[in-house]
Design goal:
With 400 residues, this protein is mainly alpha-helical. The protein has one domain: MFS general substrate transporter like domains (Growth Hormone, Chain: A), CATH 1.20.1250.20. The chain contains 16 helices and no strands. It has helices at 4-23, 29-36, 40-68, 71-90, 94-122, 125-156, 160-180, 196-204, 207-236, 241-246, 249-265, 271-294, 300-315, 317-326, 333-359, 363-388.
């Protein structure tokens, strides 16, 4: 690889393709439920299933990548993703569709884990945080932009083109990894056992890792509960699939704005204080949601407005917290990447499934769920800042 720009492009693409597929078909879910003759909650669970497989597989990719190197696993993962995408596009039944989603998620996990690990391989801790601040908002944009793309494809062609599109998109990172990415030397001698459990248990006992990870889980869970709930809220407000798809675009502005602010602040104030500012926006958005729901108000503005505040946390706190978690133990960068990815995606899957299954779909459910996740992130950042009190400002991941 000849330049940092090329490296950032490759890492962005391999990190984004899996999340692009996670929710591109959100605007099409009512149509797909009718096509497959399943209930609304069942089609919602297809996102939860994808996220569950995506989460569990990351635990495996992390130690394997530390042990054997990055490139070969990544190529195999992208090929699996392509196969799964084609199966989803061709599915004639809901069961076949779910099989395709599982295979798609098995492959997608490789890009998420190895993308984060590649950054830690190449850059020192503070520089890695700056790279994350470029890459991760681009990755965060993929699930934000995906419903807009999916809404257009569904209206213009059919829901199947959502999966054809993501398969074609994955061809670009496949070619770049095959011809432009060098293999990373394995971190263990040949024949040595892969330290799955010991590496993961070490990270689970790491206080800073767990606090950063809690912030990540809270923000990401809120985001995916919004994605699965909002499409039906918009539908109840009389909006078409195409109109609903475009309403996800304003949230990208919040992600970009949060990223720009956090990047400018990195060299000026303490790292964890920047994370705290993003969490404050998260709590503000959750509070506006909850007050509106309590007063019985529901409108397009009262969905998009508070969620734009939440998206500020997505663009700032989420990326920095992921960077801090991965860099908290440099000896186990890919294992840390896999574990934080497991918690991030797994919590989103569990939250998405439980909220829909236990409480149904409504503006009130959406509002109070987001407030709950915001308060969880607030508790984590209070403990994180308390642990750093009296210490000098540190680069990402230098805290213990």
């Amino acid at each position: 690889m000849k330049s940092k720009a090329e490296f950032i492009l490759i890492v962005s693409l391999i990190s984004a393709f899996g999340l692009l597929a996670s929710d591109i078909y959100v605007p099409a879910m009512p149509l797909m439920a009718a096509f497959f003759k399943v209930s609304v909650w069942q089609i919602q669970q297809s996102i939860a299933l994808y996220l569950c497989v995506l989460a569990l597989t990351q635990i495996v990719y992390g130690p394997l990548s530390d042990h054997f190197g990055r490139r070969r696993l990544l190529l195999g993962g992208i090929v699996l993703y392509l196969i799964g995408s084609v199966l989803c596009a061709a599915a004639a039944s809901f069961d076949h569709f779910l099989v395709g989603r599982c295979i798609q998620a098995l492959g997608a996990a490789s890009g998420l884990v190895i993308g984060r690990a590649l950054i830690s391989d190449r850059f020192p801790k503070h520089e890695a945080a700056k790279i994350y601040n470029i890459v991760y908002p681009l990755v965060s944009l993929s699930p934000a932009l995906a419903p807009a793309i999916g809404g257009y494809l569904t209206s213009a062609l059919s829901w199947r083109w959502n999966f054809i599109f993501v398969a074609l998109f994955a061809c670009l990172p496949l070619l770049l990894v095959a011809f432009r990415l060098k293999e990373t030397p394995p971190s263990h001698a040949p024949g040595k056992r892969i330290a799955f459990l010991s590496g993961l248990s070490e990270l689970l006992r790491h206080r800073t890792f767990m606090l950063y990870t809690t912030v990540v889980c809270a923000i990401y869970s809120a985001w995916f509960v919004y994605l699965t709930q909002s499409t039906f809220v918009f539908h109840s407000l009389g909006l078409s699939e195409d109109q609903a798809g475009w309403l996800y675009i304003p949230l990208t502005c919040g992600i970009f704005f949060g990223n720009i602010i956090s990047k400018k602040l990195l060299d000026r104030i303490a790292y964890d204080h920047i994370v705290g500012l993003g969490v404050a926006c998260f709590v503000a958005g959750g509070t506006v949601f909850a007050v509106s729901a309590w007063l019985g108000q529901a409108s397009t503005v009262l969905v998009i407005g508070p969620m734009a505040l939440v998206s500020l946390a997505n663009g700032s706190s989420l990326s920095l917290a992921v960077s801090g978690a991965v860099a908290s133990n440099p000896r186990r960068a890919a294992s840390a990447s896999g574990l934080v990815g497991f918690f991030q995606i797994g919590s989103a899957a569990l939250s998405t499934a439980l909220v829909s299954l236990l409480f149904g779909t409504s503006y009130k459910v959406l509002a109070f769920a987001i407030l709950g996740f915001a308060l969880l992130a607030l508790v984590a950042i209070v403990f994180l800042l308390g642990a750093q009190k009296g210490q000098p400002a540190l680069a990402a991941g230098t805290t213990k």
